[in-house]
């Protein structure tokens, strides 16, 4: 076993992050989970929310969309629809998106086929605001 854990965050457009980190926290389909070096192999869904990693005792936060996470003893690969580092988020835009989606969802019937996608988009918008606020309050 090695004492290094490599994290890769990948979207359809680009490799967002790739480096050695101390730990990773992922918003999994069954709940948030943490990963340290030597973690047992794991494959999980990722839900829209907050992903963070620690490197040199400093946390970096991302708002991520849905996707998958693969963990081996030495590597974590997060494949998601979107990933935005907290310091790159436009809070006003995220709030407007959140408010618009809340309004649209309140007018929808839950049987509407677009409801699930809008709920995912709302969860991402909420995560964007939360992640931005977490970093700005530090």
What topology does this entry show?
Layout: E1 5-10, E2 15-21, E3 23-28, E4 31-36, E5 42-46, E6 49-55, E7 58-64, E8 67-71, E9 75-80, E10 83-85, H1 91-106, H2 115-136
Parallel strand pairs: 1-9
Antiparallel strand pairs: 1-2, 3-4, 3-6, 5-8, 6-7, 7-10, 8-9
Helix pairs in contact: 1-2
Total discrete domains: 2
Flag low-confidence runs. none
Number of helices: 2
Helix fraction by DSSP (H/I, runs of at least 4): 25-40%
Number of DSSP-assigned strands: 10
Biggest β-sheet strands, sense, barrel: 5 strands, mixed
Note the beta-strand portion. Answer: 35-45%
According to CATH, the homologous superfamily of the largest domain is: F0F1 ATP synthase delta/epsilon subunit, N-terminal
Shape category? globular
Taking Cα atoms only, what radius of gyration do you get, to the nearest Å? 16 Å
- Give the class from helix and strand content and strand pairing: alpha+beta
Query: What order do the helices and strands follow?
Result: EEEEEEEEEEHH
**In whole angstroms, how far apart are the ends?**
35 Å
CATH topology-level fold name of the largest domain = ATP Synthase, domain 1
Walkthrough of the structure:
With 138 residues, the protein is of the alpha+beta class. It folds into two domains: 5-86, F0F1 ATP synthase delta/epsilon subunit, N-terminal (ATP Synthase, domain 1), CATH 2.60.15.10; 90-136. The protein contains two helices and ten strands. The strands form two sheets. It has a five-stranded mixed beta sheet, with no helix packed on it. α1 runs antiparallel to α2 (115-136). It is globular. The termini are far apart.
